[in-house]
Design a protein that fits this description.
about 220 residues, Rossmann fold, two-stranded parallel sheet, 6 strands, binds NADP nicotinamide-adenine-dinucleotide phosphate, Sc_DH/Rdtase_CS, acetoacetyl-CoA reductase activity, 3-oxoacyl-[acyl-carrier-protein] reductase
Length: about 220
Amino acid sequence: MLQKEGYHVAAVYHAGDESARMLHEQSGIRIFKWNVADFDACKRGVAAVESELGPVDILVNNAGITRDTPLHRMTSEQWTDVLATNLGSLFNMCRPVIEGMRARKFGRIVNIGSVNGQRGQYGQTNYAASKAGVIGFTKALALESARFGITVNCVAPGYCHTDMVAAVRDDVMASILATIPVGRLGEPEDVARIVAFLAQDSAGFITGATFSANGGQYMA
Ligand SMILES: NC(=O)c1ccc[n+]([C@@H]2O[C@H](COP(=O)([O-])OP(=O)(O)OC[C@H]3O[C@@H](n4cnc5c(N)ncnc54)[C@H](OP(=O)(O)O)[C@@H]3O)[C@@H](O)[C@H]2O)c1
């Protein structure tokens, strides 16, 4: 959607080589591979993007993983992996771009949260904590950045039709669907539309906000 709006887009992935290749073939979008949970990899990656495409004016922190299990069975690794990927990545990616945005007096940062960070979810102490953290990070960086023309916002999707949700068991999915008032899962476009809106130059008065896109499942 950002590409359709005319932006030069770079996309980052970690493991899905085949999906990345297909996205590049279909869209021409420049694809980069690194682990957003690794600060040094992010520093190197951002430098590579900037040398090819120019300064990063818009950053969308979208990478996220789940390692669901109740806390009494959760391993330290399941906790750490989710926190490092979903929340650590915000520091790792914002830190290398924020000084340039401040110097240029413009920036748009959109962090992808989750309805389950707003309301909690059984089996997701790790994920819910990481996504609640995304909202706090968003508000704090919004305060620090406002006078530099940089906005920082969060989009909190509900259950959407992606690979992440394809992993949910059919019976669990049926019970989730019954709790979504609009009666369907979200589509990636339902989220991308808000991101594209927030990325616009004209969206400069909107910062520190969390936008829910969850089909009415939870009204924060
Ligand atoms: N789908 C939903 O219902 C839903 C609901 C609420 C919030 N969200 C949030 O929306 C965002 C997108 O989720 P999705 O449903 O599109 O998930 P997805 O289909 O599993 O895609 C996740 C993406 O993040 C990338 N990624 C994961 N770990 C990474 C890492 N360490 N470094 C770099 N890239 C990494 C993945 O790349 P590889 O495939 O290459 O690993 C993949 O492109 C996530 O933040 C998720 O928490 C999703």
